[in-house]
Design brief:
single chain; 146 residues; mainly alpha; Arc Repressor Mutant, subunit A
Length: 146
């Protein structure tokens, strides 16, 4: 049975995430930012949102709610993330970055972006970099639609 064009497109989307994740994670100074890949993903999520439920976090990082909770616990203990109860539904627990977590991410963000830029310059031609930038902008624009 021959694969359909839509199968190829869906498979390509499945390949994109680990490739992007590997590229970004290779730009992180693991001594300065000594967290697991899952915790790094949670930091990134919380930088782009004011708060999230543990169920939402689990969905974004493709894990169970229990695994997400275990990954968040050290971030809470370190003072980077805080848990709070949803006032509208007291059974829901939300998490968000603390002021310390936001400050830490701001300080790391520039370093990560510099390292990422250096990595892109070392690996790709200027034309490939421009093509990648355009492609990422297109993906973000399309996938951001709700």
């Amino acid at each position: 049975m021959e694969p359909h064009e839509s199968d190829w497109e869906e498979n390509s989307l499945l390949v994109v995430l680990p490739l992007i994740q590997r590229l970004i994670l290779s730009s992180v100074n693991r001594e300065r930012f000594p967290f697991t890949k899952t915790q790094l993903s949670i930091f990134a999520l919380l930088c782009s949102r004011s708060s999230m439920t543990m169920k939402e976090v689990a969905g974004y990082i493709s894990s169970s709610k229990e695994q997400a909770t275990r990954a968040v616990a050290p971030l809470v203990d370190a003072g980077y993330v805080e848990r709070f109860v949803d006032p509208a539904n007291r059974t829901r627990i939300h998490i968000r970055l603390t002021t310390e977590g936001m400050d830490f991410m701001r300080s790391c963000r520039d370093e990560i972006l510099r390292n990422l830029s250096r990595t892109l310059e070392e690996r790709y031609t200027p034309e490939e970099q421009a093509q990648l930038k355009d492609s990422v902008n297109t993906i973000v624009t399309i996938l951001s639609k709700t």
